[in-house]
Amino acid sequence: MPSARQIRWAKFRVLVVAAVAGTILCVLFYLLTGGTLLERKATLYLYIPDASGLGPGSPVRVDGIGVGKVSRVSLSGSKQPARVVRVALSVEHSHLIHIPVDSTADIGADTLLGDKFVGIQSGHSASTIRPDGEIALKPEATTLDLAQFAVQLRTVDVTLRAIEDGTSPLGQFVLGDDMYRDLLRRLDQIHRGLRSVEDANTQIGGLVYTDKTFRQIDAPLLALDQTLARMQSGQGAAGRLLFDSAQYDQLRAVLVDLRRSVAEFRAGPMVQSDGTYQRWRRSLSSLVERVDEVNAGPLFNSSEMYDNLNGLAIEMGRSIRDFRENPRKFLRMKVF
């Protein structure tokens, strides 16, 4: 027989399980109601001629957005045909600011056989509806625009005349065989195209039924695979570079020598001290001064020397010309 402590512990466990189950049920019920169970509700009224298909729980939407449900449908007792049934709408209080006072409502359905809902079309007034307010029923469109109907009739008449006269594509198709022949010609072209695809001697057929294209794609891939295989086996310059470290060591030695040479040059007196720089600077300055002196001398500033040299060249040219014309003139012999 269980002891009193075991009985108390069993009762405690049952109580905990019941509390957890109740909590879960409350959460599920809250979620099934859309999370609006604890929100404040406001009641609005709508008068309609009949309530066929509409009942408690039917959705209430404002511009397609759900804001509540129908809470009650009852007879209003009014003698007016448009106010026979009174529908009480339970709307979330926070959504009243989205329903102006000039809003209208009507009864709609998602499908032909679906459940009805109350659809509210928001108006344009700056004032919003208050709790226990009335929403006007949207009037049915019973007027007929005769002018628009006449335009549509004329459009239909023009279309039918075009078909009868054969001026439109549909009329040509009905009365003549041009479109039919054109359709046959296009189908024949499609048929010939399909036959060309079936023929392996054509370009497209060769692509489809022969391995020419495959070979064109396979050959470069095979060459690439062979090249990679040779590299992997250590053949060729690239393979030796990957598997033999001699070239790498040689290149590394060259870089080490170059780095050592740069370091020696940076450590030399030419870089570390400015004595060499000063000597180079004095030499260049002296060379520039000499060039300036030559440029400032009479050789470049006066034309006298140029004229003398030019006259000497002219006299020499004349003498050479006379010598070529009469060499005896210059070959004179005297006997003493």
Would you kindly provide a written description of the structure presented here, covering whatever features stand out?
The chain is of the alpha/beta class and 336 residues long. Among the domains are: 1-38; 39-137; 148-187, no CATH class; 245-277. The chain contains twelve helices and seven strands. The longest helix has 29 residues, at 4-32.
Keywords:
336 residues, 12 helices, 7 strands, seven-stranded mixed barrel, alpha/beta, 56% helix
- Gyration radius from CA atoms, angstroms: 55 Å
Walk across the major sheet and give the strand order: 1-4-3-2-6-5-7
Can you give the helix content as a percent range? 55-70%
Stretches where pLDDT is under 50 for at least 5 consecutive residues are none
Cα-to-Cα separation, first versus last residue: 181 Å
Shape: elongated
- Output the helix-strand order: HEEEEEEEHHHHHHHHHHH
Number of helices: 12
What can be said about the biggest beta sheet?
Answer: 7 strands, mixed, barrel
Q: How many β-strands, per DSSP?
A: 7
The structural class is: alpha/beta
Indicate the proportion of strand residues.
5-15%
| Average pLDDT metric | 78
